[in-house]
Amino acid sequence: MASLPTDRPVTPLRQRMLDDMAMRSMRARTQHDYVRHVRAFAAFLGRSPDTATAEDVRRFQVHQREQGAGEAVIGSAVSALRFLFTVTLERPDLSRRLVLAPPPRKLPDVLSVDEVARLLEAPPGIKYRATLGVAYGAGLRVSEVAHLKADDIDSKRMLIRIEEGKRRKDRNAMLSPQLLELLRLWWREGKRRCVLLPHGWLFPGRSYTDPVSTRQLHRAVHEAAEAAGIRKRVRPHTLRHSFATHLLEQDVDIRVIQVLLGHSKLETTALYTKVATRTIRAVTGPLDQLMALMEGKTPAG
């Protein structure tokens, strides 16, 4: 079980919750966040959370709003308390009292094909060109890029194996011939520099036994965007958004894109239909149809 550093004695309730999270193989970071939110709830109550009532839950959420807590903080607290009430305390009645307002759904930032090309040419070395290339070329999340191993690249089947992606799910991602060639360039350079270990990380960090950090990848994207003269807000996930949008504009079936991205729900993937500008431009508007009828013409498109 992952140990969580604390300067306070571990109460029986907290230990039970830690055990419940460990049995479900929850990540150490998630465990830490859940304990922190439950501790804040206990501090608000002034007593143990296992004595909480429905009114206590309501007062705590009102208190969070009054203190100006953001949607992300409130959402994380709701997840933690739902776990506490439903799993550890077996009080689903309290869990149902938690209110989670859905955050506003913002459209993702997407780069044009030309901007992606400039971005991929901007990194100073082949290593980061390859990391950004695989983020865009396979539509991977930044953590998935960081934790790739050399053995995950299947050049015979032209697939990239993603182990324990989001929600700890495995999946296959696409491997195009151009991306494979880019990865081979990095492989040869990495072997020449003796930084690639057998069966090790494809993109090692400062220590060859550790993967490159997501922070390093964020920094690499920001520096590349600046060098390429791209003024949009660019982060690693922007490349994943661009991957999906560009596939949609190439008329790839949205269900195929859903599988490639590893989305569990189609409506998550459907968000990209709102930013696929080429697809939007290809639609003949009702005004065009009306004017064409009035002029006795057949509208183009």
TrEMBL record:
Q: Which SUPFAM superfamilies does this one have?
A: DNA breaking-rejoining enzymes
* Keyword entries, A-Z: DNA integration, DNA recombination, DNA-binding
Name of the molecule in the record: Site-specific recombinase XerD
Do the record's keywords include DNA-binding? yes
Q: Which segments constitute the Core-binding (CB) domain?
A: 8-89
Q: Which family does it belong to?
A: Belongs to the 'phage' integrase family.
Picking any one GO molecular function of the record gives:
DNA binding
InterPro entries reported for this sequence:
CB (IPR044068), DNA_brk_join_enz (IPR011010), Integrase-like_cat_sf (IPR013762), Integrase_catalytic (IPR002104), Integrase_recombinase_N (IPR010998), Integrase_SAM-like_N (IPR004107), Tyrosine_recombinase_XerCD (IPR050090)
